[in-house]
Amino acid sequence: MHQRFLPDNCVSNVNTTIQKPPIQLFGVEGRYACALYSAASKLKQLDVVEKDLVKLQGILKTDLRLQEFIRNPILKRSLKVTAVKEVAAKVPLCAPSTNLLALLAENGRLKALNTIINSFKTIMAAHRGEVVCEVTTAK
């Protein structure tokens, strides 16, 4: 009923309900991973986002310049936002993955990228019904 008071261009056709992840993670990285899961789920791009993040994590492990750039506290956030958008375009990454990188750069949280990716991978494993376990045997 409240939509009749809004101009037509303010009413969104996008599903605004939050898609809850199959498991709840806590901390900063958990919040970002859960938000990414919700956004990617709404867009039906969960698998694409997961592949993007795995690819990005591989690049982070091998590219020392990118690691230094992410960890450098002296660089302005606006410069980091522009740079990560360029990286996302070159890789290329889908929109939710690109938005995550830009948001992390804008909020000064790029240092947490690796743990956020690991948290998202944990959520996706739970989404697929995978259970991580450790088996100890006597030899």
Mean pLDDT: 86
User: Can you give the helix content as a percent range?
Assistant: 55-70%
Which fold name corresponds to the CATH topology?
Peroxidase, domain 1
Q: Which shape, going by the Cα principal axes?
A: globular
- Beta-strand residue fraction: under 5%
The count of β-strands is 0
Write down the domain tally.
1
CATH class type: Mainly Alpha
N-to-C series of helices and strands: HHHHHH
Poorly predicted runs are: 1-13
Radius of gyration (Å): 18 Å
What is the CA-CA span between the terminal residues? Answer: 68 Å
Instruction: Please give the largest β-sheet.
Output: none
Number of helices: 6
The CATH homologous superfamily name equals N-terminal domain of the delta subunit of the F1F0-ATP synthase
GO cellular component, one term: mitochondrial inner membrane
Organism: Timema genevievae (Walking stick)
Subcellular location: Mitochondrion inner membrane
Protein name: Oligomycin sensitivity conferral protein
Written account of the structure:
By secondary structure, the chain is an all-alpha fold. The chain has one domain: Peroxidase, domain 1. It has six helices and no strands. The longest helix is centred in the middle third of the chain and has 17 residues, at 46-62. It is globular, with a radius of gyration of 18 Å. The termini are far apart. Mean pLDDT is 86; it is low at 1-13.
